[in-house]
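Lab meeting prep.
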Amino acid sequence: MAARADNLRFYVDESALGLGKTLAMARKDTVHARHPLIRECPTSSLDTVWMPSVARRELIVVCRDKHIRSRPVERLAYRDNGLRVFFIGGKKDLSTWEWLGRLVKHWDRIEDLVSSQGPGPWGYVVTEAKLSPIALV
């Protein structure tokens, strides 16, 4: 299965590139940094480049930032671009396999939130146990 241009919903940023590549192979609606369907988001893109591009396409962001709660400037960038974001949280780095397991475990809840929360900006931290809202201010 490969992502299709007419069906894109999720963008995985460079912070979780291995996960993004895996999801792009498994799902028709997911792309990642450097994916051929989103050439305007190569690897090593600054937030000021990839965030507006992803926002224009109305894609939902999946990323890894274990320090997002203590980085208000980064949260503001997501907010200012009107993005919907799922931050993979946790105190330690995980393998791509472990990140994938965490997302799959919560995928039904992720889909429910996408439907119920509507347009951005909004964000949730995805941990082993739950999804928690995070203020993008």
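Slide two material, second protein:
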Amino acid sequence: MKPIILAAVITIFAVGTAMAQSCESKAVSADGKPLHGAAKTSFLRKCKRDACESKSVSAEGKPLHGAAKNSFMAKCKRSAEARFNDAFGSKADISA
């Protein structure tokens, strides 16, 4: 059981880093210019929430519901926020 959990944690961190980079690279306006300030923060918040939402499935591949989903989403968002703060050296709040 422990190797499975360890593998899941490692995968989450690896995917999370890629997710943070992909959200950052997608943060551009309709005319192709990079977003700044509140628009960028809002976009990153939505992008990370959507990325966490798509990963909230059980071991059987079924969508999580209720407390399990709430717990997973909170953990996913916390790790996304920590990666964002590490990458940009700020204490920005990107929680939903």
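Talking points for slide two:
The CA atoms of residues 7 and 32 lie 38 Å apart.
The two ends are 32 Å apart (CA to CA).
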